[in-house]
Amino acid sequence: PTPMAVLEGAKLVSEGAEGEPGFGELMVVDVGGATTDVHSVANGLPSQENVVVKGLPEPYARRTVEGDLGIRYNSSSILQIAGRKKIFEKMDLPKEISGRIDLEAEVQRLSKHVVEVPSSEMGFHVDIGLAGTAVDIATQRHAGRIDAAYFPSGRVRIQRGKDLTKTSCVIGTGGVFAHGREPRRILEAARYDRNSPESLRPMEPDFFIDESYILFAVGLLAEVSPVKALRIMK
């Protein structure tokens, strides 16, 4: 299945193969029309002192699928979850331009015309806003978080999920990255946000775009010729 192939590709790019070095611990964000998938290849251990880990151990290679964050079938869901303001913030447009966009109407239209690709400036900006918002929410759900708890002995910081703050790179894959505009701006929504300090997302990663949209194919090829597959992806 394609999601499993993407996860295998992520593991290959992270770990390397037969003397060909990988990129180290990483996160992959795959934005699609129906879902936004997030993959992480990282141990997720605490990077801060005096943190207690709670919950079941997280797998080293982990995938989460957000079925309410697709930028076509579920565009109206993104608007409902995040609100207009957040989506417009991801567009980063001057007010005189953003004021001309009927976001609700555009979202309704996209949810009915799910194979449509942007053909106008407005269409590209709406896709940037929806995709950036989907990346933001999906990576917050995927990454671990730090919560404070209070016991008779004092305040304790509790980590649930994977600490990805030291993850070295974030890779964007999917049509909106390969064929859309402003892929880096969209992908930067996966980065640690001081306004949400409890979310343990990557703090200073390098960003890469799967411009040829081949990470899934690399994951399949890895079973046959991992070194060649890794070199192709690099």
Question: Mind explaining what this structure looks like?
Answer:
It is a single chain. The protein has 234 residues and is α/β, with parallel strands linked by helices. Helix content is 39%, strand content 19%. The chain contains ten helices and eight strands. Strands 4-2-1-7-8 form a five-stranded mixed sheet, sandwiched between helices. A three-stranded mixed sheet has the order 3-6-5, with no helix packed on it. Strand 5 (145-151) and strand 6 (154-160) form a beta hairpin. Helix 9 packs antiparallel against helix 10. It is globular, with a radius of gyration of 19 Å. The protein starts with a helix and ends with a helix. The mean pLDDT is 94.
Low-confidence stretches: none
Give helix % range. 25-40%
- Separation of the first and last Cα atoms: 23 Å
Structural class: alpha/beta
Summarize this entry quickly.
With 234 residues, this protein is of the alpha/beta class. It has 10 helices and 8 strands. It has helices at residues 2-15, 75-82, 84-91, 95-98, 103-112, 121-142, 175-179, 183-187, 215-221, 226-233, and strands at residues 26-31, 36-41, 51-54, 61-66, 145-151, 154-160, 169-173, 206-209.
